[in-house]
Amino acid sequence: MATAKNNTIKLKFDSARKLAPAPESKSAAKINPRYDLFINGKFEKPSSKKYFDTINPATEEKLSEVADANEADVNKAVKAARDAYENVWSKMPAKERAKYIYRIARMIQERAREFAIIESLDGGKAIRESRDFDVPAAANHFFYYAGWADKLEYAFPNRRTTPLGVAGQIIPWNFPLLMAAWKIAPAIATGNTVILKPAETTPLTALKLAEIIQEADLPPGVVNIITGAGATGAAIVNHPDINKIAFTGSTDVGKIIQRAIAGTNKKATLELGGKAANIIFDDAPLDQAVEGVVNGIFFNQGHVCCAGSRLYVQESVFKQVVQKLKDRMETLIVGDPLDKNTDIGAINSKQQLEVINKYIKIGQKEGAEMFESSCPLPGKGFFCRPTIFTNVAQSNRIAQEEIFGPVLAIQSFRTDDEVIEKANNTPFGLSAGVWTDKGSKIFNMTTKMRAGVVWANTFNKFDPTSPFGGYKESGYGREGGLHGLNAYVNIVS
Ligand code: NDP
Q1: Are strands 267-271 and 475-476 parallel, antiparallel or unpaired?
Q2: Distance (Å, rounded) from C-alpha 101 to C-alpha 114?
């Protein structure tokens, strides 16, 4: 019996084994010393004449400098997008639009290695993840939405749709290329044009994408990529000639955006924070569940809006699961993001490391019991050991607030009703996970949990065909799948 086995067998991870370094070569990626703004199909100097550095969070060394777009630049980008929308893109036959999008998808695949290296250098994520997840998923989004471009009458049967116009898209630093793909692909497939702003700390893969877009001969102005800080994002949000804002980021900025567009005709999709409950019942295959917990919270250093950052374990298997998790954590390699053996790379920025360390202190002060793995950390750069807390109360801040790092709050439960109440007792509602042998229990839980995505016996699984988005303070609107098309069209009849 699975449970009996789980009770007796302890997995051996052979953590004493030393792996030789397996670094990916930086030389396969070309990073320019300086990047301008991508407006109307060309790289243009910023009106501000200002540039800011983007650094490698694993070494703290400068990688490049990028332009700081001000309001005048945003105006230029919006004008380019409007002209391209009115004169070219909205008039082009959909099957022609699709060809460009397929071309971009193929070019991302062709340059996958270069994209993966730059993503890991600029953002700190382990190369295994950027190579095997971020870049293929980004290409898949372009392929998927290219397929829909000339089939919208099947996506919206018996309805007539029109594009919205010009979309302003603001993305965060945790999945820079993938977020750019999530935003750009459905928007241009449905005939809109866009202005995209990547996050300040991770602009490089979006700018590499701009180079590809230029090489793909996409008509000028259809996609404009401008870099800058929060003020640039705010200038996009407040621009009167933008029809839609698509934002992924913190709940705080999401609220600012919502206030800014209230009373305007702008449509919005907001994909904000999360504090997902990952729930393990005593009939679950525990070793698999522990792998799911590791993937849920330590994937991408925990910089994941849908991370399984709260773990609920049924009381009868609580001790066992926590011990298995600690054993597994001791095997995780934290270090050089470019090393193919690395499991957990660098924290994205000094500021974010400070946020995570602040929460670790809060957890200790609140009386929770902390365990962190004993792995060595590199001497330079921003790193954090995988960390768990037990003895956590539902009201503790580490159980309520988004930490956005490799920090897990663990609690026990006895009954289904109790865990549903605890899981839903959060301001967020983005994702959740359930681990059990019983299909009926899965259906019971998935129907009662207020989360946009609920995974069963897996976690952090994404697919372009599948909608993603939240409830409550996790935002509104869906990206991905058919729902993702809906967010970029007017249904006119
Ligand atoms: P933000 O929400 O500040 O950043 C997201 C994007 O919005 C970035 O491109 C940012 O630019 C831009 N931005 C910032 N201020 C404004 C504004 N007033 N108007 C328009 N755009 C704006 O996230 P942070 O990087 O500050 O991270 C803070 C916390 O947010 C994290 O600790 C984490 O908890 C959470 N977070 C959640 C994410 C999610 O996917 N749910 C993603 C990222 C963060 P810039 O980068 O230049 O500041």
Answers
A1: antiparallel
A2: 20
CA distance 330 to 326: 6
The pLDDT tens digits for 199-213 are 999 999 999 999 999
Q: Would you say residue 13 has pLDDT above 80?
A: no
Q: Which residues, in sequence order, are CB contacts of 292 under 8 Å at separation 6+?
A: 278, 308, 433, 435, 457, 458, 459
What is the token pair recorded at 431?
């994702």
Cβ burial 69-81 (10 Å sphere, 16+ → b, else e): bbbebbebbbbbb
Q: How many CB atoms lie within 10 A of CB 27?
A: 7
pLDDT digits 0-9 by tens, 406-439: 999 999 999 999 999 999 999 999 999 999 999 9
Sheet of strand 223-225: strand arrangement:
42-44, 37-39, 223-225, 193-197, 166-170, 244-248, 267-271, 475-476
Residue with token string 């993938």: 178
Q: In the structure, which protein residues have their CB atom closer than 6 angstroms to any atom of ligand 1?
A: 170-174, 197, 199-200, 229-230, 233-234, 237, 248-250, 253, 256-257, 272-273, 305, 352, 355, 402, 404
